[in-house]
Specification:
Layout: H1 7-20, H2 32-71, H3 77-86, H4 93-102, H5 104-115
Helix pairs in contact: 1-2, 2-4, 4-5
Length: about 120
């Protein structure tokens, strides 16, 4: 079997790793091994933080909703959501908080329907 030299492929792999690690500090941007390791950790963190982001947004919507709900005469967020479920109104928190922030008159009408 003839000998295969992997120089071209190895160089291409090194370049792609270093290109992705551009902007990292110190040896992480220049040394292949350090760059590879930091990319692995960065990938893990980015995956985990994408999941965290969803949770952060949901809590933000709830805070916005709670403020708008109290302005419309409700005691708390939980009573508002419980009443919505009893009335079988299926609006999610994202849409409700958007109404509360951008279109308060629409949100007030929704709140009156939930209250009645």
């Amino acid at each position: 079997m003839s000998r295969v030299k992997g120089g071209v492929i190895s160089l291409k792999r090194r370049r792609s790793v270093l290109k992705r690690a551009k902007g990292y500090r110190h040896g992480r941007s220049t040394k292949e091994r350090a760059a590879k390791e930091s990319l692995v950790h960065a990938g893990k963190n980015s995956f985990a933080h994408r999941k965290d982001n969803k949770s952060n947004y949901r809590s933000l919507w709830i805070v916005r909703l709670n403020a708008a709900i109290r302005e419309n005469g409700f005691k708390s967020y939980s009573t508002f959501i419980a009443n919505m479920k009893k009335k079988e109104m299926e609006l999610d928190r994202k849409v409700l908080s958007e109404f509360a922030q951008m279109h308060p008159e629409i949100f007030t009408r929704i709140a009156k329907q939930v209250e009645a």
